[in-house]
Amino acid sequence: MKRVTIYDVAKDANVSLATVSRVINGSDVVRSATKQKVEASIDRLGYKPNAIAQGLALSKTTTIGLVIPEASFTYVGQIINGLLDVSKIYNYNIILHTTTEGITDINEIVDDIIKSRVDGVVIYNDKLLHTEMQLLTSYNIPIVIIGNKVSTDGVCSVYVDIEKAIYELTCDYLERGLDDIVILEDRKNAYSVEQMVKGASKAFEKYGKKFDGFVDIPNEYRTTYKYLKQYFKDHKHQLVIANRDSQAMATLNAASENGMDIPNDMEVVCTLDTKYNSMVRPQISSFSVPSYDLGAVSMRVLTKMLQEDDVEDKEKKLSYLYTPRQSTKN
Q: What Cα–Cα distance (Å) separates residue 76 from each residue in 81, 147, 223, 272, 283?
């Protein structure tokens, strides 16, 4: 997508660059008729005078903004590596922005992105999708979303089909007559959990049943472990599915402290695989996701958008592999 620059405004209004700059900066030396003409061009072209007044680039800066949630550092390490490797090939620099639950103001991050004069943005954050994303695209900043299936004008995505992964896993258990399945809430990754619930619900529907196994973590509990330690005093399920490795480990510990044996009394699966899943005992069954490729492919898609090349597949789906370990029977 071609970014509208001050040059486009000057050409459209048939005035000099200096005149456009004076109008943007509120100079009194510009005649009223000329000012109105420039402002009309700015509105018509969708140019953002406030951004230029704050130093937005008039040309490419070869800088990419990367937005990730702080809570996902462990998982996104390989994503960042893939993104950095491809960015080096195309001589792009990366500016990292992190979000922290309950602390970071998303609007401030968007403002920082705009002011930092980036050419494009890669986002691994399911909470930056609506108003904020519309604001970024209004500045003609190309965006690639990692992890979420979404595409609009100026927005592409690279993702793994978590809904399908959980659907297939749930179908396997239902086929074996095991239907006491629950999915743990993950407030830090709401979109991923939403996809997990959709997958489980579709599987239950296939077998003529209704899925009602979503476990809310009450707000008064700061950690999954503290809640599950109490929860497992009165509850036991055939399968618990957690999104993050830390939640899966919390499940193992809380279950063990309540006298349960994993996997004989209860099985545990983690959606996202990390190195820690194979380091704990019992080792946790999980889905291996090509993290490095998520970053590398996302950066490659963004470079195509920046070069105004056609992006044939705006929603790029990558594969996954289920890795059974000691936390499940099969």
A: 9, 11, 21, 11, 21
CATH 1.10.260.40 in the chain is located at 6-53
What residues pair up with 143 in beta bridges, in sequence order? 121, 155
Q: Global pTM?
A: 0.75
CATH match of 63-159+291-318 with 3.40.50.2300: yes
Tallying the residues shown for the chain, one arrives at 330
**How many Cβ atoms sit within 10 Å of the Cβ of residue 208?**
7
- Superfamily designation of domain 6-53: lambda repressor-like DNA-binding domains (1.10.260.40)
Bond into 324 cis (ω within 30): no
Give the residue, 74 or 7, on which the prediction is more confident.
Answer: 7
Domain with CATH 3.40.50.2300 in the chain: 63-159+291-318, 162-289
**Closest to 125 in 3D by CA, of 113, 138, 115, 117:** 113
CATH of segment(s) 162-289: 3.40.50.2300
Rounded to an integer, what distance in angstroms lies between the CA atom of residue 294 and that of residue 272?
13
pLDDT tens digits, one per residue of 261-297: 999 999 999 998 888 999 999 999 999 988 899 999 9
Q: Which two tokens stand for residue 113?
A: 């992105």
At 215-261, the pLDDT tens digits run: 999 999 989 999 999 999 999 999 999 999 999 999 999 999 999 99
